Automatic annotation (TrEMBL):
Cellular compartment(s): Mitochondrion membrane
Protein name: NADH-ubiquinone oxidoreductase chain 4
Catalyzed reactions per annotation: a ubiquinone + NADH + 5 H(+)(in) = a ubiquinol + NAD(+) + 4 H(+)(out)
Enzyme superclass (EC): translocase
PANTHER family given in the database record: NADH-UBIQUINONE OXIDOREDUCTASE CHAIN 4 (PTHR43507)
Lineage: Eukaryota, Metazoa, Chordata, Craniata, Vertebrata
A Pfam family of this chain: Proton_antipo_M
Key words of the record: Electron transport, Membrane, Mitochondrion, NAD, Respiratory chain, Translocase, Transmembrane, Transmembrane helix, Transport, Ubiquinone
Domain named NADH:quinone oxidoreductase/Mrp antiporter transmembrane: residues: 1-186
Family in the record: Belongs to the complex I subunit 4 family.
Transmembrane segments: 12-30, 42-61, 68-91, 97-118, 139-157, 177-197, 218-238
GO CC annotations, alphabetized: mitochondrial membrane
Amino acid sequence: WLPKAHVEAPIAGSMVLAAVLLKLGGYGIIRMAPTNISTTLIYPMIAMATWGVIMTGLTCLRKTDLKALIAYSSVGHMGLVASATLIQTPWSTSGAVILMIAHGLTSSMLFCLANMLYERTNTRMLIAMRGMHKAMPLMTSYWLIASLTNLALPPTINLIGEIQIMTTLFNWSPLTIMMTAMGATITAIYSLQMFMTTQQGRLTKDSKETYPAQTRELLIMLLHALPILLLTLNLELIY
């Protein structure tokens, strides 16, 4: 139901859902998950969460709807958070909190960028949004920041959270490294594909009259990118 809620909601609803409501769910799992849960229950739950990361990533590779692609990406990252919170160790909980904060900023930024393109092209199809670098060159820099943080490029805060979660899962069960590594690789592929499809190539006939980015839109992007930069430079701001 989560991708449908993301896609069918207005832009404000998608941003609040990705940035706040999903994090309330993660916080609830951290607070309510029992510390003495049996291993027989943890194994299938974490296996489903890590397998969900791969399946949502593969779904993103074939999505032509930009907003649906970002929605499935959001679901995949929360699968990592769910698997980390179930282990209930200080290292895994710390990684889950860091990734939730990073994902809240990145996913909200991507949804906002997708809506800006939708307002100009009246479509969410990736093929109809190509060549936006020529129409809005300044927004390309924000697309690059959002795409690179989404794929956890070093030394962003997203990478720190994912590395902590992957390390915890590997220490708990070495088999999980296959699932998490594959999920991270697929995430990098569809994030770069999304950036290249929307920004490169020739403008379509319907996009040649696209107006440049407005001041309020640039301010919204700055308010997303600035916290990501500050947290990357000084992670202690979270604590």
